[in-house]
Amino acid sequence: QSALTQPPSASGSPGQSVTISCTGTNSDVGGYNYVSWYQQHPGKAPKLMIYEVTKRPSGVPDRFSGSKSGNTASLTVSGLQAEDEADYYCTSYAGSNNLVFGGGTKLTVL
Amino acid sequence: EVQLVESGGGLVQPGGSLRLSCAASGFSFSSHWMYWVRQAPGKGLEWVANIKQDGSETYYVDSVKGRFTISRDNAKNSLYLQMNSLRAEDTAVYYCAKLRLWSYYAMDVWGQGTTVTVSS
After folding, report:
1. Which of B 14-73 lie inside 8 A of A, CB atoms?
2. I need a labelling partner for A82 at 20 to 30 A (CA). Which of A41, A88, B3, B76 fits?
3. Quick one: average pLDDT of B46-56?
4. B59: nearest CA partner in chain A
5. What is the largest CA-CA distance in chain B?
6. Looking at residues A62-91, what average pLDDT do you find?
């Protein structure tokens, strides 16, 4: 049950796009279309942003999108806004009823 | 309003026990898989355990197997986490979360968390 690999940090200016990667193996990210992304502001609970790789819950802006290629999933935030500054975590089903998270990426809006 | 409220956290000595509770409201609790996820200070999220709607299936991360027990009482709309043989590395904020209906492993509602500190 090794953690998925995310870059520790990412940044972009308002209005720009930024992509956060989440790399696993063919036993987790690559093996299932069950990748979710969560946004967490300091001191707050996580919020579901993307599930099943590309699906967006109602209420989440369409500036947030997800994708996957092989063992790497990605979260893209388009049209960056100040309120997007937060920590982002990916998670994937890893078989045998296990769920594994990434280490998290701190997104800074410059 | 859909809500999850955790309680039961606190300071406990290594080797001690603690029971966390999570009170659910605003949704059909008995229809959802439920999860516990924790976050050590300054660290990332870690799945701890989950439980099926009727409590017939439970799953745990390897590091807590044999020490933690997840359970639920659908009549009381409540989720629990019994934590025994606690270690310093169990120190974390513990969140309960519900699985989004008709989805795979997507937790769409989270509580505010309860803090567990294991220290002598």
Report:
1. 37, 44-47, 50, 57, 59, 61-62
2. B3
3. 97
4. A97
5. 44
6. 98
**B21-29 average pLDDT score:** 97
pLDDT tens figures, A49-67:
999 999 999 999 999 999 9
DSSP secondary structure, chain B, as one string: --EEEEE--EEE-TT--EEEEEEEESS-GGGS-EEEEEE-TTS-EEEEEEE-TTSS-EEE-GGGTTTEEEEEEGGGTEEEEEE-S--GGG-EEEEEEEEPTTSSS-EEEE---EEEEE--
**Is A30 in CB contact (< 8 Å) with chain B?**
no
Instruction: Name the residue of chain B whose CA is nearest to A104's CA.
Output: B44
* CA of A98 vs chain B CAs: smallest distance (Å): 7
Q: What percent of chain A has pLDDT over 90?
A: 95
Token readout for B46 is 């870690």
Note whether A88 and A107 are within 8 A (CB). yes
- pLDDT tens digits for range A15-29: 999 999 999 999 999
| φ, ψ for residue B4, nearest 5 deg | -130, 130
Choose from A68, A99, A106 for mutation: most chain B CBs within 10 A: A99
